[in-house]
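Entry 14. Ran structure prediction on the chain below.
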Amino acid sequence: MSQPVQRIYIDTSVIGGCFDDEFKEWSVKLFEEFKTGNKIAVISDIAIDELRLARAEVRLHIETTPKKNIEFIAKDKEVDELADKYIKEGAITKKFHEDALHIAMATINKVDVLASWNFKHIVNLERIRKYNAVNLKNGYSILEIRNPRDIIHI
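Output, structure tokens:
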């Protein structure tokens, strides 16, 4: 019996990583998995808004993946409320509200993994524990947070 296709929430660092020497190898491999349908890319309206500020090649990169392999999700009141709880509970500061929104989007939409290259505010063991403590306290599931290298199929 085959396993369901993993839904991977990606933030803008993963997309931009395709054009960064340090992260290119692993970001490109993850996008190859999206293109072949081995994984589904989950991208939020928050990430789309952030991409508007990026170089054209980064902005347009998501379009290299077939639409059937991308799930677009939108922020709502529940996302705002959970992001505010991360801040209130000290998982992240208000200055990095956008990062809290990414965590909340991934949590509420029950993705299999959130992928990011943001090691300071997202892929950070201490913060992951705090995000998940808030999630459990508020009736949500634990969120897996990894960098792309850790989740590609080798």
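The domain at 6-151 is CATH 3.40.50.1010 (Rossmann fold). Will compare against last week's run tomorrow.
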